[in-house]
Amino acid sequence: MSKSPMLNRKAGGGLTRDTAIKALRLLHRKLGEANRKMTVTLIGGGAMMLVHRTRLDTRDLDAIPHPSGRSDIELLEKCRDEVTREMKAKGVNLPVAWINAQAAPIFQEQKKYFPASDFHRAGYLRFANLDIIVAAPEALLAMKVQALRDPNDWNDVEALCRILKIHSWEQFVEVVEPRVEDMGIIGNDDTLRLRQIVSKA
User: Fold this and answer.
1) What's the longest Cα–Cα distance across the chain?
2) Contact 48/55 with Cβ under 8 angstroms?
3) CB of 43 within 8 A of CB of 140?
4) Are 100 and 77 in contact (CB under 8 A)?
5) DSSP string, the chain
6) What's the domain count of the chain?
7) Average pLDDT in the 21-40 region?
8) pLDDT range class, residue 181, cuts 50, 70, 90
9) CA gap 84, 73 in Å, rounded
10) Which residue range(s) make up the domain with 81?
11) In a domain, 5, yes or no
12) Is 45 exposed, middle or buried (0-12, 13-18, 19+ CB in 10 A)?
């Protein structure tokens, strides 16, 4: 097994890295047309694809706007839909909700478990009207451990363990435990599989 985090697995989502960057650049322009600026933190598979390049595509970009008020989310969705229509006219079909804030309410409930620095690091992409921040890998790992819904989540956990150079269960717990409400939410079968992944990272 390769020790590189550059797994480049195809996740089957349809939104590639190049297309996502083009869409984000156009999103910045739409925000400018609305005379607005926005900062968003990316989490989930989109962050894995864009920054860590561990997958070739993703279903969508999970974004946490700062701030995350209703008007901010509505603005993001309005500009997103304009981008979708404009790119479709150019022959590029984006997923309907290619960038969305669906995870924002969950994040608001769980953010007390994360250090503020996990979500306020230097911007990944910085445009005049749009600043894209990507959550720290420690935060991405803790979130993925609480998801584990499909094979892509497991692949991301494997990649993040390599990125963070986690080689023991003690190291894994040291990173994850402070960032989750209760390690007990991880079932026995999932814990066994996680231990196996850590031992091979």
Assistant:
1) 52
2) yes
3) yes
4) yes
5) ----S---B--S-SEEHHHHHHHHHHHHHHHHHTT--EEEEEEHHHHIIIII--BSEES-EEEEEES--HHHHHHHHHHHHHHHHHHHHTT----TTSEE-TTHHHHHHHGGGS-GGGG-SS-SEE-SSEEEEE--HHHHHHHHHTT--SHHHHHHHHHHHHHTT--SHHHHHHHHGGGSS-GGGS-HHHHHHHHHHHHH-
6) 1
7) 97
8) confident
9) 16
10) 15-200
11) no
12) buried
Chain segment 107-161, per-residue pLDDT in tens: 888 888 999 888 876 678 899 999 999 999 999 999 999 888 888 899 999 999 9
- Characterize the bridge pairing of strands 38-43 and 61-66: antiparallel
Residue 47 in any domain: the answer is yes
75's tokens: 């603005």
Domain contains 152? yes
Asked if pLDDT for residue 13 goes beyond 70, the answer is: no
Place of tokens 């561990």: 54
Assigned domain for 2 exists:
no
